[in-house]
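Page 37, top half.
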Amino acid sequence: MIYMVLLVAALVLVFLYEVPVMVKHKHWRDLVVFSVLSLSVFITSLLMLIKVNVPSPMRLVEAVVNAFMRLWGRP
């Protein structure tokens, strides 16, 4: 339970540090990418904390790379 609290606290602290600067400078795209990546890492970490078997993200990376390779005509 303490690890979940620490995880949430870390996410909140990072958001409180990063988000106001992005909003002030009107970096909306950066804010969206930052939020999506941060929340995906948070969800993955939370699932790992509650002992859910999380598949390796490397499979997703390989699938994306292979899709781009096919688009560019490379086997």
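Page 37, bottom half:
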Amino acid sequence: MNFARAIPSFSLIRGGSSAVLLCALAALVASCGESQKPAGAPPPPPAVTVAKPVKRTVTDFDEYVGRFTAINSVEVRARVSGYLDGVHFKDGQIVKQGDLLFTIDKRPFQNTLDQARANLAQAQSNLNFTQADYTRGQQLVRDKTITDQIFEQRAQAFRNAQAAVSNNEAAVRQAELDIAFTELRAPINGRIGDRRVSPGNLVTGGTAGNTTLLATIVSTDPIYFEFTFDEASFLRYERMAKTGNDIASRGAGVQVGLKLIDEHDFVHEGHMDFVDNVIDRSTGTIRGRAVYANPNNIFTPGMFARVRVPGSPPYEALLVPDAAVGTEQTRKFVLTVSADNTVVPKYVTLGQTTGDNLRVIKDGVAADDSVIVDGLMRARPGQKVTPQDQGKPGAAPAQGASPPQKPK
């Protein structure tokens, strides 16, 4: 047997056993060290950002949906019958008062006018003759040259001639008026619709109900905006008006904002000018109306929009960021931090939202409350937190609030 080769192999086996033993000893020491750490130690209180409610003078607003309506709307119809001779506008264009729109063939009316003038000249000639004969008769009857009966006949002829002249003068004026009516001009400023009759067609005119509709003109600047509001709102407005806070009652002239369907803010300013005198029995609403300038003709009659009407006099209110408000079923709440850094939920009554994303709190918080505005997901009712004033570096962005839970 070769002992020289066996000894090194035994040494390797012995050395490997020692290494295994050392590893096991190290693991045992490490586990003993971990067993000495305290078990179940709570994490430090989470950091949240708090802020005091903002004091501001605000006014409540009510929003309604309505439509634009034209202040003036005119149906263009002919006053005389005849064949349409020409159309002098483009469909849908803006027209000014007095612009020529349609012409009717005036030749028949010119003939009537010439005939009426001729009859007037004849009646005037007859008047001159009878007047001279009547003047001579006055002297002759004084001289007893003619009888009283003959003189009365001359006086009657003179009066009949005067009446004939007046009758023919009226006929001339009517013929001249008919000539003027062959030209149809715009009665108002506004936008005209499309023509309903083409040149060459017979147009029925007059004052009867079967006249021909030629076109329609609606005024655009200024323009009405009509909307309806409920009876409760109407009573609130009227009662505020009785106390001197005239909001949207009759003749108030209150400024009201408006936004179109593709706009986010109430950027258009107008004023109230009318509230109806009856409440609709079928809907329980009453009609209101505002007036808006429309120099660029953006507003069109029939267009939908939303109007914002002041619903209260100005008052002092507390506001918090809208993101700080949470929801628990039908109730709204905010999370506050007490003096001992404990999270306390408070149920609130909400008002409107301002343009800078602040929410009016009508009831539920006080001016000295510390409201959690950042880190809401890390806060629970009854939990200790580490509050930081708003605006400090490292504040987390606002998150949605969780419903309040009872502390365990």
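Margin note: The radius of gyration is 47 Å.
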